[in-house]
């Protein structure tokens, strides 16, 4: 079993405060002959007639002196997403990153291009406050970047990119 990220418990508590149910900690599964372990499996009842929203979350702290070194975890994320699609196609995978990293490194042209190109879904979290704020959906095809807040919802993966923000001020976008 691999070590949990330093902010694992903070993200978990933030999700639980907003009535997300932790179903797997970690989410372990096998795809072919390869074993996978994603940090969290969670779900939330959306409405009685709609059922559950099921997501998986890979948590990253971005504490290395070089953010690009931590950003290489996107390759790991893409492998997880491929395997998860075969194991549980209803579950959507998110990469959780700290608010400070999102406000700096994830605003760079390279990072935005990579997130758009690889269609990485993000959870932006504040590891100190452990509180979920509104859910923000960003569509790169229409808006062109992180700077525009569209709506307060999470929808299924037929959109280009989505972001679930945990504990952010609306004016930081």
Give the tags:
single chain; 173 residues; alpha/beta; 8-stranded mixed β-sheet; two-stranded antiparallel ribbon; 6 helices; 28% helix; disordered C terminus
Task: Describe the protein's architecture and organization.
The chain has helices at about 10-15, 65-70, 75-85, 100-105, 110-120, 140-145; strands spanning about 20-25, 25-30, 35-40, 40-45, 50-60, 90-100, 120-125, 135, 150, 165. The protein has six helices and ten strands. It is an alpha/beta fold. Strands 1-4-5-6-7-10-8-9 form an eight-stranded mixed β-sheet, with helices on both faces. Helix content is about 30%, strand content about 30%. The longest helix is centred in the middle third of the chain and has 15 residues, at about 75-85.
- Indicate the radius of gyration in whole angstroms: 15 Å
Strand order of the largest sheet: 1-4-5-6-7-10-8-9
Strand content: 25-35%
Helical residues, percent: 25-40%
Characterize the biggest β-sheet.
8 strands, mixed
Count of extended strands: 10
Count of DSSP helices? 6
User: What does the overall shape look like?
Assistant: globular
Could you report the average pLDDT, rounded to the nearest whole number? Answer: 76
Helix-strand pattern, N to C? HEEEEEHHEHHEEHEE
C-alpha end-to-end distance = 37 Å
SS class? alpha/beta
Unreliable residue runs? 133-162, 166-173
């Amino acid at each position: 079993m691999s070590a949990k990220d330093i902010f694992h418990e903070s993200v978990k508590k933030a999700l639980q405060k907003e009535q997300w149910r932790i179903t797997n900690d970690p989410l372990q599964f096998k795809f072919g002959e390869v074993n996978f372990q994603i940090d969290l499996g969670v779900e939330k009842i959306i409405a009685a007639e709609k059922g559950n929203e099921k997501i998986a979350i890979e948590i990253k702290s971005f504490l290395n002196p070089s953010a690009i070194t931590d950003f290489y975890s996107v390759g790991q994320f893409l492998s997880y997403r491929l395997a998860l699609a075969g194991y549980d196609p209803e579950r959507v995978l998110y990469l959780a990153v700290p608010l400070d990293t999102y406000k700096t490194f994830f605003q760079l042209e390279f990072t935005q291009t990579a997130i758009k190109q690889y269609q990485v879904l993000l959870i932006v979290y504040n590891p100190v406050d452990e509180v979920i704020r509104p859910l923000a959906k960003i569509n790169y095809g229409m808006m062109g970047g992180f700077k525009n807040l569209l709506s307060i919802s999470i929808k299924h993966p037929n959109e280009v990119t989505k972001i679930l923000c945990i504990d952010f001020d609306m004016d930081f976008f």
